[in-house]
Amino acid sequence: MSSAIPKLDAPIVLVPGLRGFDTLFNARRPAKDAFPGVRSVLEVAGNTVLTARVSPTASVATRAGELKAYLQNTLGSRPVHLIGHSMGGLDARYMISKLGMDRKVLTLTSVATPHRGTTFADWILSRFARYFCPLLRSLGIPDGGFFDLTTDACQRFNEEVIDAPNVRYAAVAGVCETPWLGAEWAFSSRIVGRAEGPNDGVVSVASATWGERTDVWVGDHLNLVNWPNRLMKKAGEWHDRAADYGRLLDQFAPRER
Hints:
- This protein has 257 residues and is an alpha/beta fold.
- It has one domain: 3-Layer(aba) Sandwich (Rossmann fold).
- Helices cover 39% and strands 16% of the residues.
- It has ten helices and eight strands.
- It has helices at residues 38-44, 60-75, 87-98, 119-138, 144-147, 151-160, 183-196, 205-208, 230-234, 242-249, and strands spanning 12-15, 23-26, 29-33, 49-51, 80-85, 105-111, 168-175, 214-218.
- The strands form two sheets. The protein has a six-stranded parallel β-sheet, with helices on both faces.
- Strand 5, helix 3 and strand 6 form a beta-alpha-beta unit.
């Protein structure tokens, strides 16, 4: 498997999405990675791979600042390749264009990132924000991240956050339909599907498309970062997505600067 995965000179940093994490712990032992299996497969090929830590529910601007600090504290002035899942792709775009990191970031591959927002965020916030936002704030939990994923917010974001000409951008979108769509995604998928078309349960292909190339994978929003699809596993149709991340690197390896 590793022979098909290129070794990049610069480190690869994985950026989790909303409510994301770098590692879940059980009894102080690592139990689940945000990108399960991806890091180890890329490392076997000789790559240096890190997973960033950012606030789970803070705004894109806040998380972007935290991502910049993480990169500077961990890698200093070294250039990097970024792979951002969901909101993590927006964080990375903001950091590159607004926080002076366009000379440090070589590439950004966004995975299931709602570049144009998601109508499911519109639906949820229009009905329930007045209930859960005061609760989150009373607990000291930021809620800005939820609002930054609406279609209106992302339209403003795209007008203000312009891609850096010296950074290469690519994307992965997901499509998950019956019989592989789990019950946890069925409702949100219908809402997004009616307004935006094919989707991964919460982010449409149209919204996730970005950069010079967009690959479309079969799977729900978490399957795209290698969380297994239980329905596909039961039917013997699931394959480990970690190797697909290795193939994503091929588009950048020949021209890594």
